[in-house]
Design goal:
The chain is an all-alpha fold. The chain has 16 helices and no strands.
Length: 400
């Protein structure tokens, strides 16, 4: 398995356009999420509410994500992509307009967070199925590596941009930036023509049968099953903590939106460093957990408590940046490894499950950490969660 990034995919004009448009869209998605988190903190001042709103944006991935994955494996991909992007743009515009009119309270914020979460649960299997069809089948390694880096860099850099926008120009500027980020992809989509899918398996009788087939394939394939477990374990503690950074910036250090901007920028810089690191890694053996991913998961579990137990602001900023690096290493290596063993008509289902455990783990982590922080404090809650995740990771390492 070649993990290093090559340029084969970029020789296809459709993929080049897609890569640019999707980069804008993904950054807008993550700017929006950190802005929603800050709004929840600003409106409530409680960790439980911040965790709850973050949970609403992520939880639909665990419920509707696999359904959309099965659906996209049965339908034309470009119309699905246009519908998803149009819906995300409409929701972003609604949120920005309501905030500008001073009409966005906690109830409205929660409802919009849930709606965005549902549409986003369709967005993930769509993008993971669409991109490989915009380049020749032989360029799958390049496509997967490029798109996974695109996503994971946006996952870290987007929140950093959002934090900086909030700190310097306010929440309204961040929300309108999200609307602007949706426009390039909307303009590009009509010009993207995917190649026909390569299908080797029988067509499922209906969506539910297809969903069951995807679940069976993921669970019975030892490699995919182990990838899902490791991804979810890191997401609970590493990703979950990054989703409630307002509690760290203001709840622990009283640094306000400026502090949030510093932490999210650190995570973004760490993500960029992780992207550079990934393309220099040697190839991993096919259908085995990449050593870099295993090391990054262990490092993230050890590092997470340091972020909240430290009373030293520069040390906490450094730890958040390192966590961003580790998250990108895990995300890119795992997605690249799994995508390369999937046929086109199974891609939406299996990758929706991968996203489900990754983002669903972050949702559960942010909800649990936020609620527990109000009861026992964020340091204690994070320490207990880290010990639980370490136990799972140790058990996975011992499983043959």
């Amino acid at each position: 398995m070649e993990l290093n990034l090559n340029l084969a995919a970029f020789r296809a004009p459709a993929f080049r356009l897609y890569f640019i448009g999707n980069a804008f869209s993904l950054h807008g998605l993550w700017i929006q999420r950190v802005t929603i988190g800050w709004l929840a903190w600003e409106l409530s001042g409680t960790g439980a509410v911040v965790g709850w709103v973050a949970f609403l944006t992520f939880a639909p991935v665990m419920i509707t994500g696999p359904f959309f994955g099965a659906l996209i494996d049965r339908m034309e991909v470009r119309p699905a992509a246009m519908a998803v992007q149009g819906s995300l743009a409409a929701l972003s515009l609604t949120m920005a307009a309501l905030y500008s009119a001073d009409a966005l309270g906690l109830t409205g914020l929660s409802a919009l967070a849930l709606a965005i979460g549902i549409v986003t649960s369709a967005h993930h299997p769509v993008r993971m199925s669409f991109a490989p069809l915009l380049a020749p089948a032989g360029a799958i390694t390049s496509v997967v590596a490029a798109t996974s880096i695109n996503f994971n860099v946006a996952r870290m850099v987007g929140p950093a941009l959002g934090g900086a926008l909030i700190a310097n120009w306010g929440v309204g500027a961040a929300l309108w930036a999200v609307v602007a980020c949706a426009l390039p992809y909307q303009a590009i989509l009509p010009f993207l023509t995917p190649r026909p899918r390569n299908t080797d398996g029988p067509r499922d009788a209906n969506i539910l049968a297809g969903l069951r087939a995807g679940l069976r394939h993921a669970w019975r394939t030892r490699f995919i099953r182990r990838v899902l477990i490791l991804t979810g374990t890191f997401a609970v503690i590493g990703r979950g903590l990054l989703e409630i950074l307002p509690l760290v910036a203001d709840g622990l250090f009283q640094r306000g939106p400026a502090g949030l901007g510093v932490l999210t920028s650190a995570a973004g810089l760490g993500a960029l460093a992780g992207a550079v690191l990934v393309v220099t890694l040697p190839p991993s053996r096919a259908e085995t957990l990449p050593p870099a991913a295993r090391a990054a998961a262990a490092g993230g579990i050890v590092l997470s408590p340091l972020i909240v137990f430290s009373s030293n602001w520069p040390l906490t900023v450094l730890a958040v940046g390192l966590l961003g690096t580790l998250g990108t290493v895990i995300g890119v290596t795992m997605q690249t490894s799994v995508q390369q063993v999937l046929r086109d008509d199974m891609r939406g289902r299996v990758m929706s499950l991968w996203v489900m455990v990754g983002i669903g783990g972050a949702a559960l982590g942010s909800l649990g950490l936020g609620a527990a922080a109000d009861i026992v404090g964020l340091p204690t809650a994070t320490g207990v969660a880290a010990m639980g995740c370490a136990t799972v990771l140790f058990s996975l390492a011992r499983t043959k």
